[in-house]
Design goal:
Number of strands: 7
Order of helices and strands: EHEEHEEEHHHEHH
Structural class: alpha/beta
Number of helices: 7
Strand order of the largest sheet: 3-2-1-4-6-5-7
Length: 202
């Protein structure tokens, strides 16, 4: 089962936000083995690991968190395997019933904003890199390829969409036999991001 895999999370520096603390606590409460990576691990207590061991951070990277955090997540899954989760994902179930297989989450998208091809095959959804799993890393898998592509981007092309959903979709469409499962939107992102504020304002 998916729960048998280690979970990797990244907090770049400083104290954890309340949402990040909730995310971390929720996975641990359900029995997941979480590795918390940081470029400033001394602030996060015992058990936090130095992210520079996976991806050294340059001064240029500090101004582009989308690039830094995306490249980190692909590399950690390519080298260590396991689960990647962003620190705004909250685990609600002890056993989500998801098999331990190569997978990526999907999310809703706005049709008037996005016209790019999507690996989900549906115009109103797209793959996302907020939650992914790679149980058995191998050379040439999606995460190795994503690592190589993102690392090669010129600085002006290192936008969130270029290093995230759009890039993953392109890689998956270019290799239809990639063996990666796309989770339905309800599995990880049941609420469209643009609707989230409304849940807190009602």
């Amino acid at each position: 089962m998916l729960k048998d895999l280690p979970v990797h999370m990244l907090w770049v520096s400083g104290e954890l936000s309340r949402l990040a603390r909730l995310s971390l606590a929720s996975f641990r409460a359900h029995g997941y083995r979480v590795t918390l990576w940081s470029y400033d691990p001394r602030h996060l207590g015992e058990g936090a690991r130095d992210a520079a061991g996976i991806l050294p951070k340059s001064r240029e990277d500090e101004g582009n968190m989308a690039y830094l955090t995306s490249l980190f997540r692909y590399r950690v899954l390519a080298e260590h395997g396991g689960i990647w989760s962003d620190m705004d994902v909250v685990a609600l179930k002890d056993d989500p019933g998801i098999a331990a297989a190569p997978l990526v989450a999907s999310e809703k998208r706005r049709p008037f904003r996005h016209v790019e091809p999507t690996a989900t095959g549906e115009s109103l959804t797209q793959v996302t890199n907020c939650f992914m799993a790679n149980p058995s890393p191998r050379v040439g898998d999606l995460w190795h390829r994503a690592t190589d592509v993102v690392a090669a981007f010129n600085p002006e092309h290192r936008t969130w969409e270029n290093v995230g959903p759009h890039m993953l979709s392109r890689l998956m469409l270019d290799d239809p036999d990639n063996g990666v499962t796309i989770l339905p939107t309800d599995a990880v992102d049941p609420v469209a991001w643009w609707n989230v504020p409304g849940y807190f304002l009602e």
